[in-house]
Amino acid sequence: MAFEGLSERIQNALSGLRKKGKVTQTDINQATREIRLALLEADVNFKVVKEFIAKIKERALGSEVLDSLTPGQQIIKIVNEELTQMMGESAVALNKSDKIPTVIMMVGLQGTGKTTTAGKLANRLMAEQKARPLLIAADIYRPAAVDQLKVIGNQLEVPVYEEGVNNSAEDIVRHGMQQAKENKNDYVIIDTAGRLEIDESLMDELKNVKEIAQPDNIVLVADAMTGQAAATVADGFNQALDITGVILTKLDGDTRGGAALSIRSITNKPILYVGEGEKLSDLDIFHPDRMSNRILG
Ligand code: GDP
Protein backbone atom coordinates (compact mmCIF):
# COMPACT_ATOMS: atom_id res chain seq x y z
CA MET A 1 0.00 0.00 0.00
CA ALA A 2 1.09 3.57 -0.64
CA PHE A 3 2.77 5.39 2.26
CA GLU A 4 3.31 2.20 4.21
CA GLY A 5 6.93 2.89 5.16
CA LEU A 6 6.29 6.54 5.90
CA SER A 7 3.21 5.78 7.91
CA GLU A 8 4.94 3.18 10.03
CA ARG A 9 7.95 5.39 10.77
CA ILE A 10 5.93 8.46 11.69
CA GLN A 11 3.66 6.39 13.90
CA ASN A 12 6.70 4.91 15.61
CA ALA A 13 8.22 8.34 16.11
CA LEU A 14 5.04 9.56 17.76
CA SER A 15 4.13 6.44 19.71
CA GLY A 16 6.47 7.32 22.58
CA LEU A 17 4.77 10.69 22.99
CA ARG A 18 1.23 9.41 22.91
CA LYS A 19 0.76 8.71 26.60
CA LYS A 20 3.23 11.15 28.09
CA GLY A 21 2.03 13.43 30.83
CA LYS A 22 5.06 15.63 30.35
CA VAL A 23 7.00 16.23 27.17
CA THR A 24 10.57 17.50 27.25
CA GLN A 25 12.58 19.32 24.65
CA THR A 26 14.57 16.11 24.17
CA ASP A 27 11.38 14.15 23.44
CA ILE A 28 10.40 16.72 20.84
CA ASN A 29 13.84 16.75 19.23
CA GLN A 30 13.88 12.99 19.07
CA ALA A 31 10.42 12.70 17.53
CA THR A 32 10.98 15.46 14.97
CA ARG A 33 14.34 14.00 13.96
CA GLU A 34 12.66 10.67 13.28
CA ILE A 35 9.81 12.32 11.35
CA ARG A 36 12.30 14.32 9.31
CA LEU A 37 14.16 11.16 8.29
CA ALA A 38 10.90 9.39 7.50
CA LEU A 39 9.80 12.21 5.20
CA LEU A 40 13.15 12.40 3.43
CA GLU A 41 13.12 8.66 2.97
CA ALA A 42 9.62 8.93 1.49
CA ASP A 43 11.22 11.26 -1.08
CA VAL A 44 9.58 14.46 0.08
CA ASN A 45 11.42 17.56 -1.11
CA PHE A 46 14.00 18.59 1.50
CA LYS A 47 12.90 22.23 1.63
CA VAL A 48 9.33 21.16 2.23
CA VAL A 49 10.58 18.85 5.00
CA LYS A 50 12.65 21.60 6.56
CA GLU A 51 9.74 24.04 6.72
CA PHE A 52 7.43 21.35 8.03
CA ILE A 53 9.77 20.35 10.85
CA ALA A 54 10.36 23.98 11.79
CA LYS A 55 6.61 24.53 12.12
CA ILE A 56 6.13 21.39 14.19
CA LYS A 57 8.93 22.37 16.54
CA GLU A 58 7.69 25.90 16.92
CA ARG A 59 4.18 24.77 17.75
CA ALA A 60 5.35 21.88 19.95
CA LEU A 61 7.21 24.33 22.15
CA GLY A 62 4.25 26.69 22.32
CA SER A 63 1.54 27.04 24.93
CA GLU A 64 -0.97 24.79 23.14
CA VAL A 65 1.31 21.88 24.09
CA LEU A 66 2.92 23.08 27.32
CA ASP A 67 -0.39 24.00 28.94
CA SER A 68 -2.08 20.83 27.81
CA LEU A 69 -2.83 17.90 30.12
CA THR A 70 -2.09 15.55 27.24
CA PRO A 71 0.94 17.15 25.54
CA GLY A 72 1.82 14.01 23.58
CA GLN A 73 -1.63 13.85 22.04
CA GLN A 74 -1.41 17.55 21.33
CA ILE A 75 1.81 17.12 19.36
CA ILE A 76 0.24 14.32 17.34
CA LYS A 77 -2.65 16.64 16.57
CA ILE A 78 -0.20 19.32 15.42
CA VAL A 79 1.61 16.86 13.14
CA ASN A 80 -1.75 15.86 11.69
CA GLU A 81 -2.77 19.47 11.06
CA GLU A 82 0.54 20.42 9.49
CA LEU A 83 0.60 17.31 7.28
CA THR A 84 -2.90 18.22 6.09
CA GLN A 85 -1.75 21.78 5.48
CA MET A 86 1.24 20.53 3.53
CA MET A 87 -1.10 18.70 1.16
CA GLY A 88 -3.47 21.62 0.78
CA GLU A 89 -5.94 21.80 3.67
CA SER A 90 -9.18 20.75 1.97
CA ALA A 91 -10.44 19.18 -1.24
CA VAL A 92 -10.59 21.43 -4.30
CA ALA A 93 -13.02 20.97 -7.20
CA LEU A 94 -12.46 21.57 -10.90
CA ASN A 95 -13.25 25.05 -12.18
CA LYS A 96 -16.57 25.22 -13.94
CA SER A 97 -17.33 27.75 -16.64
CA ASP A 98 -20.53 29.86 -16.61
CA LYS A 99 -21.12 28.93 -20.20
CA ILE A 100 -20.61 25.60 -21.89
CA PRO A 101 -18.29 23.97 -22.53
CA THR A 102 -16.07 23.83 -19.49
CA VAL A 103 -12.67 22.97 -20.92
CA ILE A 104 -10.17 20.69 -19.22
CA MET A 105 -6.73 20.45 -20.74
CA MET A 106 -4.76 17.42 -19.60
CA VAL A 107 -0.97 17.76 -19.62
CA GLY A 108 1.88 15.63 -18.37
CA LEU A 109 4.82 13.47 -19.28
CA GLN A 110 4.40 10.26 -21.24
CA GLY A 111 3.34 7.21 -19.29
CA THR A 112 2.01 9.09 -16.30
CA GLY A 113 -1.57 8.03 -17.08
CA LYS A 114 -2.78 11.13 -18.90
CA THR A 115 -4.94 9.36 -21.48
CA THR A 116 -6.43 6.96 -18.96
CA THR A 117 -7.11 9.83 -16.57
CA ALA A 118 -8.88 11.82 -19.30
CA GLY A 119 -11.28 8.88 -19.53
CA LYS A 120 -11.58 8.60 -15.76
CA LEU A 121 -12.53 12.27 -15.53
CA ALA A 122 -15.16 11.90 -18.26
CA ASN A 123 -16.54 8.93 -16.37
CA ARG A 124 -16.71 10.87 -13.11
CA LEU A 125 -18.33 13.92 -14.65
CA MET A 126 -20.99 11.76 -16.28
CA ALA A 127 -21.72 9.94 -13.04
CA GLU A 128 -21.77 13.10 -10.91
CA GLN A 129 -23.33 15.66 -13.20
CA LYS A 130 -24.86 13.65 -16.03
CA ALA A 131 -22.30 15.54 -18.13
CA ARG A 132 -22.02 15.11 -21.90
CA PRO A 133 -18.27 15.42 -22.42
CA LEU A 134 -16.33 15.42 -25.65
CA LEU A 135 -12.82 13.98 -25.59
CA ILE A 136 -10.28 15.49 -27.98
CA ALA A 137 -7.33 13.34 -29.07
CA ALA A 138 -4.48 15.81 -29.48
CA ASP A 139 -1.58 13.52 -28.54
CA ILE A 140 -0.31 13.09 -32.07
CA TYR A 141 3.19 11.85 -31.25
CA ARG A 142 2.14 8.62 -29.67
CA PRO A 143 -0.07 7.00 -32.36
CA ALA A 144 -1.41 4.50 -29.85
CA ALA A 145 -2.74 7.36 -27.73
CA VAL A 146 -5.42 8.24 -30.29
CA ASP A 147 -6.56 4.61 -30.49
CA GLN A 148 -6.40 4.27 -26.72
CA LEU A 149 -8.66 7.30 -26.29
CA LYS A 150 -11.07 5.88 -28.90
CA VAL A 151 -11.24 2.61 -26.97
CA ILE A 152 -11.92 4.52 -23.75
CA GLY A 153 -14.56 6.63 -25.55
CA ASN A 154 -16.27 3.46 -26.78
CA GLN A 155 -16.22 1.95 -23.34
CA LEU A 156 -17.79 5.03 -21.78
CA GLU A 157 -19.99 5.86 -24.78
CA VAL A 158 -18.35 9.26 -24.97
CA PRO A 159 -17.61 10.86 -28.35
CA VAL A 160 -13.94 11.29 -29.22
CA TYR A 161 -12.87 13.97 -31.66
CA GLU A 162 -9.80 12.84 -33.59
CA GLU A 163 -8.01 13.44 -36.86
CA GLY A 164 -5.44 10.68 -36.56
CA VAL A 165 -1.86 11.86 -36.13
CA ASN A 166 -1.17 13.74 -39.34
CA ASN A 167 -2.68 17.08 -38.46
CA SER A 168 -1.22 19.50 -35.94
CA ALA A 169 -2.42 19.42 -32.33
CA GLU A 170 -3.46 23.05 -32.73
CA ASP A 171 -5.74 22.28 -35.71
CA ILE A 172 -7.21 19.24 -34.02
CA VAL A 173 -8.05 21.25 -30.93
CA ARG A 174 -9.50 24.12 -32.95
CA HIS A 175 -11.75 21.74 -34.88
CA GLY A 176 -12.62 19.75 -31.76
CA MET A 177 -13.70 22.89 -29.93
CA GLN A 178 -15.91 23.77 -32.89
CA GLN A 179 -17.50 20.34 -32.78
CA ALA A 180 -18.16 20.68 -29.04
CA LYS A 181 -19.94 23.97 -29.66
CA GLU A 182 -22.06 22.50 -32.43
CA ASN A 183 -22.97 19.46 -30.35
CA LYS A 184 -23.45 21.53 -27.18
CA ASN A 185 -21.13 19.36 -25.10
CA ASP A 186 -20.90 20.71 -21.58
CA TYR A 187 -17.33 19.49 -21.04
CA VAL A 188 -14.36 19.19 -23.32
CA ILE A 189 -11.41 17.11 -22.15
CA ILE A 190 -8.27 17.51 -24.25
CA ASP A 191 -5.63 14.79 -24.19
CA THR A 192 -2.37 16.47 -25.16
CA ALA A 193 1.04 15.09 -26.03
CA GLY A 194 3.58 14.09 -23.44
CA ARG A 195 7.29 13.47 -23.71
CA LEU A 196 9.75 11.54 -21.62
CA GLU A 197 10.94 14.84 -20.20
CA ILE A 198 9.98 18.49 -20.41
CA ASP A 199 11.26 20.15 -23.57
CA GLU A 200 10.71 23.46 -25.24
CA SER A 201 8.86 22.26 -28.32
CA LEU A 202 6.38 20.38 -26.15
CA MET A 203 5.76 23.47 -24.05
CA ASP A 204 5.36 25.64 -27.15
CA GLU A 205 2.74 23.28 -28.52
CA LEU A 206 0.93 23.19 -25.18
CA LYS A 207 1.00 26.98 -24.95
CA ASN A 208 -0.59 27.17 -28.40
CA VAL A 209 -3.26 24.67 -27.42
CA LYS A 210 -3.93 26.69 -24.28
CA GLU A 211 -4.35 29.84 -26.37
CA ILE A 212 -6.79 28.12 -28.72
CA ALA A 213 -8.85 26.21 -26.16
CA GLN A 214 -8.85 28.83 -23.37
CA PRO A 215 -9.14 26.05 -20.80
CA ASP A 216 -10.87 26.58 -17.46
CA ASN A 217 -8.64 23.86 -16.06
CA ILE A 218 -5.11 22.85 -16.94
CA VAL A 219 -4.60 19.63 -15.10
CA LEU A 220 -1.17 18.12 -14.74
CA VAL A 221 -1.19 14.35 -14.51
CA ALA A 222 1.76 13.20 -12.43
CA ASP A 223 2.91 9.71 -11.52
CA ALA A 224 3.14 9.30 -7.74
CA MET A 225 5.62 6.46 -8.18
CA THR A 226 8.24 8.95 -9.36
CA GLY A 227 8.30 10.62 -5.95
CA GLN A 228 9.99 13.97 -5.69
CA ALA A 229 10.56 14.05 -9.47
CA ALA A 230 6.80 14.40 -9.88
CA ALA A 231 6.93 17.63 -7.91
CA THR A 232 9.81 18.94 -10.03
CA VAL A 233 7.85 18.12 -13.19
CA ALA A 234 4.77 19.80 -11.77
CA ASP A 235 6.85 22.88 -11.07
CA GLY A 236 8.12 22.94 -14.68
CA PHE A 237 4.63 22.61 -16.17
CA ASN A 238 3.29 25.18 -13.76
CA GLN A 239 5.90 27.74 -14.68
CA ALA A 240 5.27 27.28 -18.40
CA LEU A 241 1.49 26.94 -18.39
CA ASP A 242 0.19 28.12 -15.03
CA ILE A 243 -1.62 24.85 -14.31
CA THR A 244 -4.77 24.91 -12.19
CA GLY A 245 -4.31 21.59 -10.45
CA VAL A 246 -2.75 18.16 -10.34
CA ILE A 247 -4.03 14.62 -10.58
CA LEU A 248 -1.69 12.15 -8.95
CA THR A 249 -1.84 8.68 -10.50
CA LYS A 250 -0.74 5.23 -9.35
CA LEU A 251 -1.31 5.91 -5.70
CA ASP A 252 -2.47 2.29 -5.51
CA GLY A 253 1.11 1.22 -6.15
CA ASP A 254 4.00 1.00 -3.79
CA THR A 255 4.63 4.75 -3.74
CA ARG A 256 6.57 6.23 -0.88
CA GLY A 257 4.39 9.32 -0.86
CA GLY A 258 6.88 12.08 -1.65
CA ALA A 259 4.88 13.45 -4.57
CA ALA A 260 1.63 13.80 -2.64
CA LEU A 261 3.45 15.59 0.15
CA SER A 262 5.65 17.89 -1.97
CA ILE A 263 3.51 19.02 -4.91
CA ARG A 264 1.26 21.46 -3.12
CA SER A 265 4.06 23.26 -1.33
CA ILE A 266 6.24 23.46 -4.42
CA THR A 267 3.65 24.57 -6.97
CA ASN A 268 1.05 26.12 -4.69
CA LYS A 269 -1.51 24.31 -6.84
CA PRO A 270 -3.96 21.78 -5.42
CA ILE A 271 -4.04 18.04 -5.94
CA LEU A 272 -7.59 17.57 -7.24
CA TYR A 273 -7.87 13.82 -7.63
CA VAL A 274 -5.83 10.69 -7.16
CA GLY A 275 -5.77 7.65 -9.43
CA GLU A 276 -5.86 4.44 -7.45
CA GLY A 277 -6.03 1.77 -10.14
CA GLU A 278 -6.23 1.08 -13.86
CA LYS A 279 -10.02 0.91 -14.14
CA LEU A 280 -11.92 3.96 -15.39
CA SER A 281 -13.74 4.16 -12.08
CA ASP A 282 -10.50 4.37 -10.09
CA LEU A 283 -10.37 8.13 -9.58
CA ASP A 284 -10.97 9.64 -6.16
CA ILE A 285 -11.26 13.16 -4.83
CA PHE A 286 -8.11 14.09 -2.93
CA HIS A 287 -8.85 14.93 0.70
CA PRO A 288 -5.67 16.18 2.41
CA ASP A 289 -7.11 15.57 5.88
CA ARG A 290 -8.05 11.97 5.11
CA MET A 291 -4.64 11.37 3.56
CA SER A 292 -3.00 12.73 6.68
CA ASN A 293 -5.16 10.49 8.87
CA ARG A 294 -4.19 7.56 6.68
CA ILE A 295 -0.50 8.33 7.20
CA LEU A 296 -0.85 8.79 10.96
CA GLY A 297 -3.03 5.66 11.26
P1 GDP B 1 -0.08 8.52 -20.89
O1 GDP B 1 1.12 8.16 -21.73
O2 GDP B 1 0.24 9.56 -19.90
O3 GDP B 1 -1.29 8.87 -21.69
O4 GDP B 1 -0.40 7.24 -20.00
P2 GDP B 1 -1.53 6.11 -20.11
O5 GDP B 1 -2.87 6.69 -19.87
O6 GDP B 1 -1.34 5.34 -21.37
O7 GDP B 1 -1.17 5.22 -18.84
C1 GDP B 1 0.06 4.54 -18.71
C2 GDP B 1 -0.15 3.29 -17.87
O8 GDP B 1 -0.44 3.65 -16.54
C3 GDP B 1 -1.31 2.44 -18.34
O9 GDP B 1 -0.94 1.09 -18.25
C4 GDP B 1 -2.41 2.76 -17.34
O10 GDP B 1 -3.33 1.70 -17.18
C5 GDP B 1 -1.62 2.98 -16.09
N1 GDP B 1 -2.30 3.83 -15.09
C6 GDP B 1 -2.86 5.04 -15.25
N2 GDP B 1 -3.35 5.51 -14.08
C7 GDP B 1 -3.13 4.56 -13.15
C8 GDP B 1 -3.40 4.44 -11.74
O11 GDP B 1 -3.95 5.33 -11.08
N3 GDP B 1 -2.99 3.29 -11.13
C9 GDP B 1 -2.35 2.30 -11.82
N4 GDP B 1 -1.98 1.22 -11.14
N5 GDP B 1 -2.08 2.38 -13.12
C10 GDP B 1 -2.45 3.48 -13.80
From TrEMBL:
Cellular component GO terms, alphabetical: signal recognition particle
Compartments, as annotated in UniProt: Cytoplasm
One GO BP: SRP-dependent cotranslational protein targeting to membrane
SRP54-type proteins GTP-binding domain location: 270-283
GO MF annotation list: 7S RNA binding; GTP binding; GTPase activity
Known catalytic reactions: GTP + H2O = GDP + phosphate + H(+)
Domain of life, source organism: Bacteria
Keywords from the named record: Cytoplasm, GTP-binding, Hydrolase, Nucleotide-binding, Ribonucleoprotein, RNA-binding, Signal recognition particle
Keyword Hydrolase part of the UniProt annotation: yes
Entry's EC annotation: 3.6.5.4
Major place of residence: cytoplasm
Broad enzyme group: hydrolase
Binding sites annotated in the UniProt record for GTP: 108-115, 191-195, 249-252
Its job: Involved in targeting and insertion of nascent membrane proteins into the cytoplasmic membrane. Binds to the hydrophobic signal sequence of the ribosome-nascent chain (RNC) as it emerges from the ribosomes. The SRP-RNC complex is then targeted to the cytoplasmic membrane where it interacts with the SRP receptor FtsY.
Assembly notes: Part of the signal recognition particle protein translocation system, which is composed of SRP and FtsY.
Record-stated family: Belongs to the GTP-binding SRP family. SRP54 subfamily.
Free-text note on domains in this protein's UniProt record: Composed of three domains: the N-terminal N domain, which is responsible for interactions with the ribosome, the central G domain, which binds GTP, and the C-terminal M domain, which binds the RNA and the signal sequence of the RNC.
Protein name: Signal recognition particle protein
Organism annotation: Holzapfeliella floricola DSM 23037 = JCM 16512
Lineage start: Bacteria, Bacillati, Bacillota, Bacilli, Lactobacillales
Coverage span on the entire protein: 1 to 297 of 478
